[in-house]
Amino acid sequence: MELTILMPCLNEIETLATCIEKAKAFLMRNGIDGEVLIADNGSEDGSVDLAHAHGARVVHVPRRGYGAALLHGIKAAQGKFVIMGDSDDSYDFSELDAFIERLRDGVDLVMGNRFRGGIAEGAMPPLHRYLGNPVLSFIGRLFFSIPVRDFHCGLRGLNRDRFVALGLTTTGMEFASEMIVRAALSGYTIDEVPTTLSKDGRSRPPHLRTWHDGWRHLRFLLIFSPRWLFFYPGLIFLAFGSLVTLAALPGPIEVAPGVSLDVHSVVAGCMTMLIGTQCMSFAIVARRYAAFRGFLSNTYTFKRFTTAFTLERALFLAGVLILGGVIGVGFCLLSWARVNLGALPYGSLIRTLVTSGAAIAIGLQIAFTAFLSEVLEIESAPN
Fold first, then answer.
1. pLDDT, tens only, 362-376
2. Is the dihedral of CA 227, 228, 230, 231 positive or negative?
3. Label partner for 158 (CA 20 to 30 A): which of 38, 121, 192, 362?
4. Could you give the 3-state DSSP secondary structure of residue 57?
5. Best CA proximity match to 115, nearest among 68, 153, 171
6. 318-331 residue pLDDT tens
7. Region 156-160: what's the mean pLDDT?
């Protein structure tokens, strides 16, 4: 069988029959050996009986959720290709020619683009159209270099076997993002074709929850990009803290009339460097663990940095920082001893003491991170 047209369903009796008939018309018009598959997510309104009556095959999904229904449906599909879309009559299943053409050309994932194809009045809430979708699509392109302008179009086609091999796991609305991200990270080919979006034919509100599901999409994008979640923010913190600390370390420096950097700036700069080091440590550990577990590809660009972060190199850098910090602390103790443990000049020594303590803390952080990342990659013996 060449094609499965897959529709997730949860109480869609008002529109399901129309969607099935349009899908069957497409298969018949093009002479395609295919099926219409309904992944039912626990409907209680007669949708299952209606689907059977209109000649569709139904699989029952035991776990609730948009992603759970699609994942179960993809695994149950009999076609070489799967074209999936919502069963609310917002997508026209009789016009899937561009999708099947691109799939036949060898594209692994074909995305619909509603902004290129046309969005009917009232079909997409303004918040989704002008903020949510564009922002999340931009973040997806920025984080993962994915050439997709409509990240959340529900009408998409895919090569079934290739996507089963990805091992997708999410069960909610974020499944739409996981599909694209995991495909891109695995080197799959992705293309977009124009598609139209009509106002859905249901009389009840959609299952989508704007802020809840939007956050789940954003959270997924962040979790799958250690660079943007940890590394780049950490790099900014570390660079800014280092700049402030080095500028104020020799003594007070006036940066504007009435505004100067003094000992308190050194303290703040050192704290910022510690935060930056912590973030970058998280990035290294998260990236190496994700690659080891197969969540992220070993060919991912950031791996060049994390691979260079070997245990021996990290311990050498940590040793240099700790040694420098110990020398600084020793200098402060010696200065204190010279005055018989009495009062000390506040400014100069506190700068040295705080900076030295930060160097020791950063060195220990780097050393422990290096050991932790090695522990995470220990392979267990096969059973």
1. 999 999 988 988 887
2. positive
3. 121
4. strand
5. 153
6. 999 999 999 999 98
7. 95
